[in-house]
Write a structure and sequence with these properties.
Blueprint (H helix, E strand, L loop, with lengths): L3 H5 L2 H6 L1 H12 L8 H17 L3 E5 L6 E6 L8 E7 L8 H4 L3 E3 L2 E3 L3 H20 L8 E6 L10 H8 L2 E6 L9 E5 L1 E10 L3 E2 L10 H13 L9 E9 L5 E2 L2 E10 L2 H12 L9 E10 L6 H17 L7 E4 L5 H6 L4 E2 L6 E2 L7 E3 L2 H15 L1
Parallel strand pairs: 3-6, 3-7, 7-16, 8-15
Antiparallel strand pairs: 1-2, 2-6, 4-5, 5-18, 9-13, 9-14, 10-12, 11-13, 17-18
Helix pairs in contact: 3-6, 6-12, 10-12
């Protein structure tokens, strides 16, 4: 375990690496890795594996239908020696070809490009934190495992079990997703649910015998109002009917309609309450039928006492990295793989990536001079937990 003065002395080394970190970030951004583009993802994961291997890591490429996942370990965790787990993802929301119209660029101390903030900068921080340890002949305070997954942006369907298996062997989890815009790390995230509501009515001629029909769109309208009434902003509970559709022609009483519902909740108890309420919805129109599918796909990341303790340790370490600026914490309505680790009771610190803004947006950007500081913080955590 390093002293605060030892940590402070690293600042010069990290500052000297800023240009190299920017070069590595450029290299990653200029290799497009949209979710589902297996060949592109596998190529980059292989490259990353080779780089981490040179830093002393044991590399495993885990095949997945949405692209390969990368696992790198330093030391072996056991029941009496739990690991530190770092989680990130290589996939982005940007389709192949985005780079042609939105190339990597540096302007006014900012780096721009598809995936630069969410979250290729976070992967660069992992590389340079481990490079710092190697350079200074140090090792993480505990066994250390990195998971870089291939499908976070599409729900982590193939990587969730892998993340949870490694989390169960961990003393804490560090998530290299972007921080909040002011650089605050995330100590809470809402849980995310996705539901599909289907309505079965009965078709009829709208001009000749409309009374013989059961209008699925009218039934859907009733149900959307009932769903909207479940919103409770005081509890952080939001439901959004984001897509609704039905019918075939204006002169036909529609027999079918459907809606897609997004759910965000701050606690598991609230998720269970809302899910029960959705399953209890009843038809308003006689002979209409409802079919609800879906559920919670990312459990809430709740701010527990253990999470607060982990944050306070990181905050104290950050004083050695950046004496003039305090590390802050916050929460967000978006989900990440940190939801999975936190739901298992593993103290989780999210948003440890580079400072910037614009995740999933055209103006996505990273503050270049934050790269050394955030890598320095990560290295400090790894050597002091």
């Amino acid at each position: 375990m390093l002293s605060v003065s030892d940590i402070s002395q690293w600042s010069g080394w990290f500052e000297e690496q800023q240009a190299a970190m920017l070069t590595e970030l450029k290299n990653l951004v200029e290799q497009e890795t949209p979710s589902g583009e297996n060949e592109a993802i596998q190529r980059v994961q292989t490259q990353l594996g080779e780089k981490f291997a040179r830093l002393g890591g044991q590399v495993d490429i885990i095949e997945g239908p949405k692209g390969n996942h990368l696992k790198v370990s330093w030391g072996e965790a056991g029941p009496d020696n739990p690991q530190i787990l770092a989680v990130g993802h290589i996939d982005t929301v940007w389709p192949m070809g985005t780079l042609a119209r939105k190339p990597f660029k540096v302007e006014d101390g900012l780096a721009f490009g598809p995936g630069v903030y969410d979250m290729k900068a976070g992967i660069v921080l992992l590389q340079f934190a481990m490079q710092a340890l190697q350079q200074h002949n140090l090792k993480p305070a505990r066994p250390f495992t990195i998971l870089i997954t291939a499908d976070e942006e599409v729900g982590s369907r193939t990587s969730r079990s892998l993340i949870e298996a490694e989390a169960k062997k961990a003393a804490c989890a560090l998530v290299l997703e972007p921080p909040l815009e002011n650089g605050a790390v995330k100590t809470a995230r809402k849980g995310v649910g996705q539901f599909s509501l289907k309505i079965e009515g009965r078709a009829a001629h709208a001009g000749v015998e409309p009374e013989k029909g059961v209008n699925a769109l009218i039934e859907l309208a009733h149900q959307m109002l009932a769903i909207n009434a479940l919103n409770d902003y005081s509890r952080g509970t939001t439901l959004n009917v984001g897509v609704a559709q039905g019918g075939t022609r204006s002169n036909v009483v529609p027999a079918k309609a459907s809606a897609e519902i997004d759910l965000r909740v701050s606690t598991l108890a609230e998720a269970q309450r809302i899910e029960a309420a959705l399953k209890s919805l009843l038809p308003v129109l006689p002979e209409a039928a409802l079919m609800l599918e879906g559920g919670l796909n990312r459990p809430p990341f709740e701010r527990t006492a253990a999470v607060v303790e982990l944050f306070n340790k990181a905050k104290a370490l950050y004083r050695a990295v950046e004496p003039e600026v305090a590390l802050e914490e916050g929460s967000t309505g978006g989900g990440s793989d940190g939801n999975f680790t936190a739901a298992l009771g593993i103290p989780t610190l999210d948003g440890l990536g580079a400072v910037g803004k614009g995740a999933h947006a055209e103006h996505e950007q990273v503050l270049i001079n934050s790269l050394p500081r955030r890598a320095h913080l990560l290295a400090a955590i790894l050597t002091n937990f």
